[in-house]
TrEMBL record:
This is 7-keto-8-aminopelargonate synthetase-like enzyme. Keywords: Transferase. It holds the Pfam family Aminotran_1_2. PANTHER family: CLASS II AMINOTRANSFERASE/8-AMINO-7-OXONONANOATE SYNTHASE, LD36009P.
Length: 808
């Protein structure tokens, strides 16, 4: 029944990147007629370059340049033949030299992305399984997901979590020939590394375990012959390890490589590796430059270059340790990450650094969680000590000012990255316009008339509706049935309300808005582990309510400050509860709000369409039908009118005790059959509280005896309706017997009877809520596209749900 439009990950990324482009952070163009590596020219200004991945500076080495030019003059700009048939003359030389570097055979690939697409499907058999590190490079994840079409299971663990990895290995080991764990050697954002030796210990403990490392960011600047971080730890390449390196980035040329000591597997991959077979081979210039770089890697000169770089890295580390800046990961890699928390702070900080004369990169979603935005700095041999010192001094000056300008604090940033809070140099004061905030943890603490004037007209969250919800979702045995309510009203100094809303802290299913096929898989897992993939969420409104949960007077000059004040209050609440996500929901897209939420660490998520009738103006059944569109009238006469006489319709404001179990089962039928909006069941006491509350009434649909299978009248559907103070009739939830639902058009009858009841009792508005918008539209409802803004502390559960959604 519920047709949920899936969230488009690319749309979310597109909106984040568009914001960054507007801020002058992404999709820039370098200028000038030459490039040295030390400077980069942007906007007619030469900036010191702290964003390169050419850590050793070999891309500017005269020997590599000369080799590339000579190769073009001798062989042309490309060698347009498949490498499967014939390689151009320089290829064998390169392969021999790189093989000598690694002491294992190598396969040269066009680039790492194509390389992974070629290697992973060849190396992984149908009897195998894959476990991905949450932060393994996108190119590895993308290639691995191709194997879902072969029904190869793919799981994911939290970053570098060996306990979680071992648990997954144990679960997979009885069913699979090999278990592949895929990770980076050095991770490209934070510069942290894989626990290589601990992983090898797991390989010894579990012989099925094989390791697949993408070490392109560990290449050249460390290790014997510059063969990278992983091999520097391992010394020799074991047969159960596949290792990816690069001929670009620090190596200074172009292309990537796989090395593998297992000769049988090596031959299998080389014989037919997808893009390795069908893609164009490297250009002669790239191969020649790589040969020149390999010559350097095979001489003691590589160690001098490594030492030269490491001197700069240690110097930068020393300056940062004295700076008070929030360095997320401290190690000896040339990659550094200074946290800014919110994107808006990152935009401000990066722009300040560029004006000061320093180019640095911004780490953004999806590479990092939105709330973990930060400045990614790379150190290379191009950087001199004086500009490294100048960079740190500029960051020390501009970081606190970027915090202040964007209404955040050092403490907030450090909390987002789970860093220790330091007192020295900390700025926790904010320049804010004074606003008054009223907070309450129960609707009983807020005057009824005031609340209803602000938010009472939108659904089941007028004052009386919230009194009902607080009674239902408290003092229950199950944790998912206990919600904490938090109410906020923000006023100006003249006591005029600018903003009002409420949030609930409750347990959500991570797959709540996933496609039904994903929820079906997760529900199978929950049969053994009921709380698998669930998270506590601080969400606007509640999982029982739908509609405009935020009163915001955007005509007030301080509405922006009021929203900031609300975020501050929610941050305090979050520190107490440590929710996994913060959710603002049920919005119609607005550019100003969109920019605000994106800047403050939220991503946009599409919600199921909502439906409503805004002006019913009921006179009689005939008039109602005549006001429908021609197609809707046809639908009514075909799918609704012929079935009306099959049912006995009773409207009551009481549910008898002997009806409770039956009605609960009917409601559970609908919930379990509509996993596109996957939530926990409600407490069974809900019907008694509904029955005792003056705002509720119930439309009970009984199939007449003549149409029932056993010849007895049978309740086959119930609509649970709330009468809002603002003349809105709210069909909140529905229950149905699916044995009869399709044959007798029970759902459509309940929709029609709801409209009829609302009209006959003088209600003008029917907020139908989410899901099944097509069915409601056929009965005269208007469809409304809605979005939510989500701020997650990490991307793991979101990406795990997305990975399940890509299953075959």
């Amino acid at each position: 029944m519920a047709k949920i439009k899936p969230n488009n990950f690319l749309d979310t990324v597109d909106s984040v990147f568009n914001d960054a482009k507007k801020q002058g952070i992404l999709h820039l163009y370098a200028e000038g007629d030459r490039f040295t590596g030390r400077h980069i020219r942007i906007g007619d200004k030469d900036l010191f370059h702290f964003g390169t991945t050419g850590y050793l500076g070999l891309e500017q080495d005269p020997r590599l340049k000369k080799a590339a030019v000579d190769a073009i003059n001798r062989y042309g700009t490309q060698f347009p033949l498949s490498k499967t048939y014939i390689s151009h003359p320089l290829y064998k030389t390169l392969e021999d030299k790189v093989t000598e570097m690694y002491s294992s055979p190598v396969i040269i690939t066009k680039n790492s992305t194509l390389g992974h697409i070629g290697v992973i499907p060849s190396a992984v058999d149908d009897q195998d399984a894959i476990i991905l590190d949450h932060q393994v490079h996108w190119s590895v994840q993308s290639a691995a997901k191709l194997l879902k079409s072969r029904s190869i299971p793919i799981d994911m663990i939290r970053h570098n979590n060996l306990e979680m990895l071992e648990d997954r290995i144990r679960k997979l080991s009885s069913k699979h020939k090999k278990i592949w764990y895929m990770a980076d050697g050095v991770y490209s954002m934070f510069g942290d590394v894989s626990p290589v030796m601990e992983l090898m210990e797991l390989c010894n403990k579990y012989p099925q375990l094989h390791l697949y490392f993408d070490d392109v960011h560990g290449m050249s600047w460390i290790g014997k012959n510059g063969t990278g971080y992983v091999l520097d730890i391992l010394k020799e390449l074991p047969e159960q390890v596949l290792l990816f390196g690069t001929l670009s980035k620090t190596f200074g040329a172009s292309g990537s490589l796989l090395t593998c000591s297992n000769r049988k597997m090596y031959a299998k991959i080389k014989n037919f590796g997808g893009p390795l077979t069908f893609s164009a081979q490297l250009e002669p210039a790239s191969v020649a430059a790589a040969i020149a770089s390999a010559d350097i890697h095979l001489t003691p000169e590589i160690y001098s270059l490594q030492a030269d770089l490491m001197e700069r890295v240690k110097y930068f580390n020393m300056l940062l340790s004295e700076s008070g800046l929030p360095l997320v990961e401290q190690n000896n890699s040339p990659v550094f990450y200074i946290g800014t928390g919110m994107p808006v702070t990152g935009y401000n900080f990066v722009n300040r650094m560029m004006k000061e004369g320093y180019f640095v990169n911004l780490g953004l979603f999806p590479a990092v969680p939105v709330k973990n935005t930060g400045v990614r700095i790379t150190i290379s041999r191009h950087n001199q000590k004086e500009e490294i010192k100048g960079l740190v001094e500029a960051m020390q000056y501009h970081y606190p000012r970027a915090l202040e300008a964007t209404n955040t604090t050092d403490k907030t940033v450090r909390s987002a990255f789970k860093l220790a809070v330091i007192e020295k140099g900390k700025i926790d004061t904010k320049t804010k316009i004074a606003l008054n905030v009223q907070y309450a943890n129960s609707i009983f603490k807020i005057p009824k008339n005031e609340w209803d004037a602000l938010l009472g007209k939108y659904g089941i969250f007028d004052w009386e509706g919230l009194r009902f919800l607080e009674a239902v979702f408290s003092k229950n045995k199950k944790k998912e049935e206990n919600w904490k309510f938090h109410y906020y009203i923000v006023r100006d100094l003249l006591d005029k309300p600018i903003l009002a809303t409420f949030f609930t802290y409750s347990l959500w299913k991570d797959d709540m808005l996933a496609v039904e096929s994903v929820s079906q898989k997760v529900e199978e897992m929950r049969k053994q582990h009921p709380y698998h993939m669930t998270s506590h969420v601080l969400g606007m409104g509640s999982l029982f309510t739908e509609g405009k949960h935020l009163y915001l007077d955007t005509s007030h000059p301080l509405w922006h400050e009021a929203l900031l004040q609300l975020l501050d209050e929610l941050e305090k609440l979050d520190r107490k509860f440590n929710a996994k996500m913060l959710v603002f929901r049920d919005f119609i897209k607005d550019e100003k709000l969109n920019e605000f939420f994106h800047n403050h660490g939220f991503i946009t998520v599409s919600m199921p369409d909502s439906s409503k009738i805004s002006n019913l103006n009921w006179k009689d059944n005939t008039t109602y039908i005549s006001n429908l569109s021609k197609r809707s009238r046809s639908h009514f006469r075909k799918d609704i009118e012929p079935y009306i006489e099959r049912f006995k319709v009773v409207v009551t404001d009481k549910i008898l005790p002997n009806q409770h179990n039956n009605f609960y089962d009917l409601m559970e039928n609908v919930r379990q059959n509509n996993l596109g909006l996957n939530t926990f069941p409600f407490p069974k006491k809900i019907f008694k509280i509904m029955s005792d509350h003056t705002g509720w009434e119930f439309i009970i649909l009984s199939l007449k005896a003549a149409f029932a299978k056993d010849g007895r009248e049978l309740v086959v559907g119930v609509m649970f309706c709330y009468k809002n103070i603002d003349n809105a009739y709210v069909p909140a939830f529905i229950g149905m017997d699916y044995e009869y639902a399709k044959v007798h058009q029970v759902y459509r009858q309940l929709l029609y009877q709801t409209i009829k009841r609302a009209g006959e009792t003088g209600f003008e508005k029917i907020p139908f809520g989410m899901t099944s918008a097509f069915e409601k539209r056929k009965l005269g409802a208007m469809t409304i596209s809605q979005i939510a803004y989500v701020q997650s502390k990490d991307n793991f559960n979101l990406e795990l749900v997305g990975m399940l959604g890509n299953s075959s």
